[in-house]
Amino acid sequence: MELGDIVVIERRDHPYRGWKGKIVGRRGNRAPGDPWFLVYVMSRGRSYLLPQSMLAVVDKKTADHETLVWPISGETMKRPN
């Protein structure tokens, strides 16, 4: 997982399970090999610290495309070339 990837919260008991977000930051480790990520959750309009073990990548950021997130509506689109 890298900055800019679109992820979904997949942990069964998390209240926001199934919601998409964009990784906007990385913090220390929750446990060895399980880092904290700052995830902007589009449908809530705010960021949450979530461990990698609760997340699954939906869309990876690459050099030729990046997913943009509009903060107010939560809509996503591909960056035009």
Written description of the protein model:
By secondary structure, the chain is mainly β. It has one domain. 0% of the residues lie in helices and 51% in strands. It has strands spanning 6-9, 20-31, 34-41, 46-51, 55-59, 67-69, 76-78. Strand 6 and strand 7 (76-78) form a beta hairpin. It is globular, with a radius of gyration of 12 Å. The two termini are 24 Å apart.
Q: Nearest-angstrom radius of gyration?
A: 12 Å
Q: Report the structural category.
A: mainly beta
* Main β sheet profile: 5 strands, antiparallel
Strand order of the largest sheet: 4-3-2-1-5
How much is the average pLDDT?
83
What's the total helix number? 0
The number of distinct structural domains comes to 1
Low-confidence stretches: none
Give the CA-based shape: globular
Portion of residues in helices?
A: under 10%
The number of E-state strands comes to 7
SSE string, helix = H, strand = E?
Answer: EEEEEEE
Q: How much strand?
A: over 45%
Give the CA-CA distance, first to last residue. Answer: 24 Å
Oligomer: single chain
